[in-house]
Amino acid sequence: MIKVGIVGGTGYTGVELLRLLAQHPEANVDVITSRSEAGQAVADMYPNLRGHYDLRFTEPDADRLAACDVVFFATPHGVAHSLAGEILDKGGRVIDLSADFRIRDPELWAKWYGQPHGAPELLKEAVYGLPEVNREKIKQARLIAAPGCYPTAVQLATIPLLEAGLVSADDIIADCKSGVSGAGRGASVGSLLCESSESMMAYAVAGHRHLPEIQQGLEEAAQSDVGLTFVPHLTPMIRGIHATVYTQLLDDAEVDLQTLFEKRYANEPFVDVMPAGSHPATRSVKGVNMCRISIHRPQNGKRVVVLSVIDNLVKGASGQAIQNMNLMFGLPEATGLNQVALMP
């Protein structure tokens, strides 16, 4: 049985970890921390977990956390920098759901996150936890940087085209919509029902923090620089990411795009390449660790449009983190992640 610790269990990714791990046959949550809620019963904060957990939140303690087989960080950016290093030094393993170790350049990270990087010495060791790209590295890792939600949806939609060298890497557009849970559980005016319901708006058009993460992954796939325009939108739903990615076929590119994607993801348990002409909906992945993709070529022209949907809290966060844990511990990758999406 894998002994699990969770740092920062009071946000949406924390409770999603608890929900999914409650059904995991090979994992047991031993420690969950929160400085603000120390002493409170987990099931009192999250009644959906009544009968599944008899745990209380505690203050973070590096020794107790390092005694776990793996520690998930479901914390704001910057928190994992110091404590993750302590846990690793004591022999533990870490899966970080924040952005603290996703971007390999500490100066670039500091530019986008507005503070100096607190553990640049760990960046060379950190493995980017996108299993569809880094599966073998994940199996050997001590420190995993779980990808962001937008980056997961966009990269899975675009990587096959760039790997095959079929599209121009200079002009990629990612038009993405997110549910309000992507903004986190903290109180903010923009997340109020009266502000977000029956309305949709773009934000961070000048530059979103996920831009350098997406660009980093796409440049690895293309083996060249990538020109990316990424525009996120807040949409009036609780869960879900819908990414529409636009690319342009090169003049000499001749390929069956449907077959290309089907072959690229044929052995991926959590990527579903849908039949030609499909339009995947976010509700088809609600609550599950799945990315559904469809590929279009409007009017059979040079423009390629890829539609990609995920649940931002599952494949975009906690479910993918557990997928990484399964790989780290040599378990079947889908262990504890075979839920069926909620509909309606």
Automatic annotation (TrEMBL):
Pathway in which this enzyme or protein is active: Amino-acid biosynthesis; L-arginine biosynthesis; N(2)-acetyl-L-ornithine from L-glutamate: step 3/4
Annotated EC: 1.2.1.38
Semialdehyde dehydrogenase NAD-binding domain residues: 3-141
Domain of life: Bacteria
Enzyme class: oxidoreductase
Keywords on record: Amino-acid biosynthesis, Arginine biosynthesis, Cytoplasm, NADP, Oxidoreductase
Keyword rRNA-binding annotated: no
Single GO cellular component term: cytoplasm
Catalytic residues of the enzyme: 149
GO biological process: L-arginine biosynthetic process
Subcellular location: Cytoplasm
Molecular function in Gene Ontology: N-acetyl-gamma-glutamyl-phosphate reductase activity; NAD binding; NADP+ binding
Pfam family, one: Semialdhyde_dhC_1
Catalytic activity of the protein: N-acetyl-L-glutamate 5-semialdehyde + phosphate + NADP(+) = N-acetyl-L-glutamyl 5-phosphate + NADPH + H(+)
Predominant subcellular localization, coarse grouping: cytoplasm
Task performed by this protein: Catalyzes the NADPH-dependent reduction of N-acetyl-5-glutamyl phosphate to yield N-acetyl-L-glutamate 5-semialdehyde.
Family recorded in the similarity comment: Belongs to the NAGSA dehydrogenase family. Type 1 subfamily.
Listed name of the protein: N-acetyl-gamma-glutamyl-phosphate reductase
Organism expressing this protein natively: Oceanospirillum multiglobuliferum
